[in-house]
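user: can you give me the structure for this one chain? tokens are fine.
assistant: on it. calling the predictor now.
[tool input]
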Amino acid sequence: MPHVLMPIGDASEVMDTLYPFFRLPEDGFEVVVCGPEARLYHLVTHEIPPAPERWDITREGPGYHLQATAAFRDIRPETFAGLFLSGGRAPEYLRYDRDLLRITRHFFEAGKPVAAVCHGIEILTAAGTIRGRKVTTVAKCALDAEQGGATYLDQPCVVDGNLVTARTWHDNTPFMKAFIGLLRSLGVILF
């Protein structure tokens, strides 16, 4: 099975993370979860509460847990077919990890498929990999995309070369279809 790398941290968003974690193996890809350390991470839920409880931003709640089997420093990115960056609050601090930035740059330099949803754009901006690209992300991270030199589009899913981005987990269906399409079209052999 070709391997897809999934970096996470505490406060990675549940739906951004678990949907692709279970969906990719259905198409023949093994997901390898990594983090700052190889340990169990606490995922969170993010949603804007429905009326009558009005919030201007997403509310965060505790979610499931997910085990990272490797630390960023131990990852050899050349052994992976693709990279999947989840959202949630985790990218706010993961973007400072030099090993994760090294890993992220590898996928762009090698032209391998990369997927990023929601706050995952913060890692791409920190790695300096989206200048001149068209991307989407959750609206509150549009500035992060623009500061990284990208053009922000408010669409469910945007594909630009080897990069596919989505706004939030609400866009998972077209997002995952596009990412799996990229994995297949960019030469990933399944058998």
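assistant: here you go. Helices lie at 14-26, 91-94, 98-109, 121-127, 142-147, 172-185. The longest strand covers residues 59-67.
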